[in-house]
Amino acid sequence: xxxxxxxxxxxxxxxxxxxxxxxxxxxxxxxxxxxxxxxxxxxxxxxxxxxxxxxxxxxxxxxxxxxxxxxxxxxxxxxxxxxxxxxxxxxxxxxxxxxxxxxxxxxxxxxxxxxxxxxxxxxxxxxxxxxxxxxxxxxxxxxxxxxxxxxxxxxxxxxxxxxxxxxxxxxxxxxxxxxxxxxxxxxxxxxxxxxxxxxxxxxxxxxxxxxxxxxxxxxxxxxxxxxxxxxxxxx
Length: 235
Known about the structure:
The chain is built from 9 helices and 6 strands, in the order H-H-H-E-H-E-H-E-H-E-H-E-H-E-H.
């Protein structure tokens, strides 16, 4: 279907160019077809047009031809390239080979900083997130990533939880962190799990699912600000 559309576009352009060149330059249709074919294939006309209108028309046809050729290549090969890229990403997702790595669950500003710092230190890490564009971008950047929900056994296994050294849950939703840790502990009771907490009333719930450490960005940030105020403000 795409090939048929591409062929129709090419035939239409060459027909328009042939008729237009024949009318403007007063050439036979055969010669005009030959000239338009040369223009379309980026070889240029065999000789310069004899009129100013012919020069302008030929230049326009050259630009239009290049644009259409590029567009048609993308139109025809685009789905193939997308499929190839998808297969590569899926292959990378299912072929992660790591040991003693850290699994980071949920992508946001906090986990972005964690991933960046761990990469700088050379610590192996795997990201789990449900956003396709995020997972794809990290895989392309050389950081293993798995698309899916971290509370799902199959997703955690793709992230090689069996050989991981720790798991960090960074979801903004406390319940997602709790479910991810609950699933992780069911697979690896000995795995060290640290979790972010957004609402302080959920700290006990995270303790119930055996989170080894719980961090509240709000509390940590407030303490840091108080310390700075104490130093600079004389409190």
